[in-house]
Amino acid sequence: MKQKLLIVFLATQSLFFVQKNMAQTEELPRLDSITIVTVDEAEGSRISKKYFKYDDRQNLIENKSVDCNQSNIKQVTSGVITSMKYNTLNQEIENIQSTYDYIIKEWVPTVKREYTYLSNGLKDTEIFCIYAKKLKKYINHTQEKYVYNADKSIKTISSSIYDPSLEKWKENKKQAYKYNSTGKLIEISFKEKNDQDNYIEKKKFIKEYDNNLLQKRIENVLNAETKKLYTNKKTEYKYNEKGLETEHINFVWEDNALQKTSKVEIKYSENNTITIDSLLTYPVEEKWKIVNRVEKKFDANQNVISLNTSEKLFDNNNPIQLTERISATYDNDVKTKDIIFPVKFAGYNEIGYQHPINNKILKAKKEHYYDGVWKEYDHYTYYYSNTENNVGITPTAKELTINFFPNPASDFINIETSKSIIGATLSICDLKGRVLFQQENFKGGQVNIRHFTKGFYICSLTKGNIVYKKKLLKK
Question: 212 near 184, Cβ under 8 Å?
């Protein structure tokens, strides 16, 4: 099969993170763009691109995805742009999304989000607006208002809808959060106002823990007839001696009882491979049968080097078969912490559709198994800022001494800073850029992250034109 790969050189401004790893400071390249070539034997190869732009404080200010004309790669056929603005504390204050209209050959705004913050750095409000083409302006649609506990964990989120006739917000929904003594989130209650303007509880999520390990996740919903909550779904978890999840079973309410419906089994091997099996239960046979398997393999630096997906095809009597494989290559001499593996795969999403990368990814390839032959499907090529320049980083930044530990962490992180960074602003954001914690004039010390959900976060210290960022894993 003939495949023609298009390599596009993108000359963009060189920007860097300065990152401290124990006793060594490194200049890390920023991902500027990704070129994706999709092979289609019927229609020919299709080309799409992803572009990333940053400001001089290392904030991501634009994320653009476009599909290109096959005969003219400079001609965009469809695409989405997300543009972000930040305040002086590097908090995102505006997020605008636009789509490409191929008919008029222009980018058209679609939605906008605006954020405000309290004096302690926590989010105060989030306003969602819809762009009205005829009026050529944004129209208020919904608003979320945040209230916090003394430990800065979320207490309630109140949602309002905008009434244009009255030109004011009308509250209609509320989420209430509860935590256990260790700071773990154990309950979220969802309420909505009825026609009498009274709140009615419509749904409740409950989490049960043992030794800080999640044992059960329960979803209760309102029964329209009895007007009471009942358990609609439940998930039970199991772990190994290292505290790593090995199994979870899903239950769904059917025939007036909770019935087992699906299961996920996770195996960790010594050759840096995680195997994730998805199974379904068949009541007549009263046993589990595997329907999907994902094998995720890492190199010595914990980079994902392959993702193999197997599926049960045709009928239940056939063995599971390998149907898709993804591979990636890295420059293991260059470290980077600000991108994640971009190829989604079928499987267990709490292990992660995406995995952090420790080294600079260069290329990735996806192949499908069809008619007894492996056929190339997607090729990903990555382009980075020029690592020979020091744009945006002052000499002072090279003298920083900053340690984050432990990482991963479950309850607290400790941050030690050198004299040159004392008095900086500490921020902790999720991967969508939402600020969950912020403290000005930070002098180092311990930060409570018990109330954070499991996953990855970005810790940043900012002082003047010096920006230091590190990825944190909450386990």
Answer: yes
User: pTM for the whole thing?
Assistant: 0.71
Condensed to tens digits (0 to 9), the pLDDT of residues 286-299 reads 788 889 998 988 88
Radius of gyration, CA atoms only, the chain: 25
DSSP 108-150: EEEEEEEEEE-TTS-EEEEEEEEEETTTTEEEEEEEEEEEE-T
Strand order through the sheet with 466-474: 24-29, 16-21, 466-474, 455-463, 424-430, 435-442
Q: What are 2-27's pLDDT values in tens digits? A: 333 332 222 222 222 222 222 233 34
- For the chain, residues with pLDDT lower than 50 are 1-27, 337-354, 386-399
Token pair listed for 175 = 């989420």
* Tokens encoding 67: 């599909």
Residue type, 331: D
CB contact at 8 A, 14 and 384 = no
Q: Could you tell me which of 336, 346, 251 has the C-alpha nearest to residue 308?
A: 346
Query: ∠ CA 471-11-98 to the nearest 5 degrees?
Result: 70
- Residue position matching structure tokens 């944004």: 138
pLDDT of residue 465: 60
- What's the pLDDT score for residue 187? 97
Report the relative pairing of strands 287-298 and 435-442 from DSSP bridges: unpaired
The DSSP-derived string for 321-347 is EEEEEEEEEEEEEEE--S-B-----SS
The separation between the first and the last C-alpha atoms of the chain, rounded to the nearest angstrom, is 45
Phi, psi of 421 (to 5 degrees): -110, -5
Please give the structure tokens belonging to residue 275: 């195997």
- At residue 345, the pLDDT reads 35
Measured distance CA(105)–CA(112) in Å, rounded: 21
What are the two backbone dihedrals, phi and then psi, of residue 305, each rounded to the nearest 5 degrees?
-110, -20
